[in-house]
Amino acid sequence: MAQIHMDDRMLIISETDERGIITFANEDFVTMSQYDYNELIGKPHNVLRHPIMPKAAFADLWKHLKSDQIWNGFVCNRTKNNDYYWVYATVAPITTPTGERHYISIRKKPSEEEVKHYTALYQGMRQ
Ligand SMILES: Cc1cc2nc3c(=O)[nH]c(=O)nc-3n(C[C@H](O)[C@H](O)[C@H](O)COP(=O)(O)O)c2cc1C
Fold it and tell me: Reduced to 3 states, what is the DSSP secondary structure of residue 54?
């Protein structure tokens, strides 16, 4: 597994339905995840889950979303080719034009210090 890095100018965006099924992904998402757009749509978002990620991080994410709160956090994602990349994510509930509850996530490149910090933290939390 090799680490790959976002460019400073990148913004990785995805949208899911209430169950976390991907309904939209932007070009930067496709680039970083190494999946084709059509492979992503309809897949559960945990397709990107990396083994370093603690269960508690996603439990906290869903707890925030279910209570209408925005969640911010550091996430390591696994790509289709088994590479990985770190992001700083902001995830929020939205209402679609047809009145459905969806969620959006917008991700920026984290600093090297942040990646170092969260790698150690998450490794220590490993269940
Ligand atoms: C909008 C949105 C974006 C998400 N983005 C990611 C992501 O980039 N990587 C990831 O592993 N999980 C992401 N998740 C969380 C997954 O839905 C899932 O909870 C997580 O991967 C843990 O998988 P598990 O519930 O099967 O243990 C996202 C969820 C939402 C609602």
Answer: coil
Q: Does ligand 1 lie within 6 Å of residue 24's CB atom? A: no
Distance 28 CA to ligand 1 centre (A): 17
Evaluate: CB of 78 within 6 angstroms of ligand 1: no
| CATH number of the domain bearing residue 120 | 3.30.450.20
0.90 surpassed by pTM: yes
Domain-located, residue 3? no
Q: What is the reported pLDDT for 90?
A: 98
Could you count the other beta carbons within 10 Å of the beta carbon of residue 93? 17
Which regions of the chain are under pLDDT 70? 127
Residue 20 in contact with residue 2, Cβ under 8 Å? no
Instruction: Supply the pLDDT for residue 1.
Output: 80
